Amino acid sequence: MEKKFMGFSWSLVGVLVFIMILVAKPKSVDAITCQEALMSLIPCRPFLTGGASTPIPKCCSAVAYINAAATTPAIRRDLCRCFKKAGPGAGVVPDKAKQLPRLCGVRVAVPIDPTVNCGSIK
């Protein structure tokens, strides 16, 4: 059974975080854990599942936060693995996930794609 927090699926949040760990220009911030990243992305759920046409400002703030916190290739790879593991079955619309970085003004280093090899992230 899928664990839920306040009605939100952990796997959906995982897919969102996956998007953010691939950011090209990370900023210096303390390392972020998988759980912290997943919790940060809860505001993105309506957009990613197709329930909203645009992400809300809190969602984009979460994207920026995760971008800043993914300071090393190792952290980005760990978050990628976390999100890939949490993502299946979350109801995320792939096209929405691909749109999120652009709509939030975040540039990513690699394509947002569930088939990305997390080990190749730099």
UniProtKB/TrEMBL annotation:
The Gene Ontology biological process annotation of the record reads: lipid transport
The secretion signal range is: 1-31
What keywords are assigned to this protein?
Answer: Lipid-binding, Signal, Transport
- Residues annotated as domain Bifunctional inhibitor/plant lipid transfer protein/seed storage helical: 34-118
Q: Name one GO molecular function term.
A: lipid binding
Q: Per the similarity annotation, which family is this? A: Belongs to the plant LTP family.
Q: What is the documented function of this protein?
A: Plant non-specific lipid-transfer proteins transfer phospholipids as well as galactolipids across membranes. May play a role in wax or cutin deposition in the cell walls of expanding epidermal cells and certain secretory tissues.
Name the chain's protein: Non-specific lipid-transfer protein
What organism is recorded for this protein? Answer: Gossypium stocksii
Q: What is the lineage of its organism?
A: Eukaryota, Viridiplantae, Streptophyta, Embryophyta, Tracheophyta
